[in-house]
Amino acid sequence: MGLDVYVGSLTRYFSGEWETVVQRYGREQGIPVQIVRTHAEPEDAIRDPERIRPMVLQWRDQLNAGLAANLRAPLDWDESPESSYFTDKPAWDGYGGMVLFAAHDEHPDIPLPATVPDGWAEHPAYQASTAEGHATRYPALLMPEAWLPCDFDFTFKAPLVEGNPISIGSSVMLLEELRELNRRTLKGSIEAMINWRREGAERTAPLEQASRFALAMFIDLATAAVQNRLPMKLDY
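^ that's the sequence the OP posted. Answer follows.
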């Protein structure tokens, strides 16, 4: 099961009016591509954006009502039909390497493996950083599966529009944490991050290479989310 990152309106996401990088490559090359996701949608799932958009806006209103006491300003983002979308594929290795690298920054006494393990979420460093009661330096990076382009300093769990409960954070806060992780560890310049994305990271790449590949990608996508006022979501 692969991992992509989507930045765009939730209306576009749930109506399926977007392509992963693999789908786009397949279309351009004339190669059929079938995407199998963990949470498969029923055959009768609503796909009409004109029906989905009011559902998304109602969901946003419900979040605003429930979180009002904790928000600096009401949650708001672009759900217009004209909005753009951005996507890329860090794969689980890249994402897992990045979050392990962040966890290791908090717990340098816990050694990291040479490559990203399949069960990276069970690694002691990640477990320590996400343990209940631990005030992690990277809450928006380590826990959420979706981010809203709004400025708030906490994460929360809630059902997404279609009903699946997930952890949600702020992409403004995520971008700050990604930059902080780079400042504290890899110290990559803009030019270096361009090269990190270009060199990629194969399945058996060293953990640091996987980490810097995903970090550079996430910084670009989080920047696009904040600048264009669009939600950001892991897709798998």
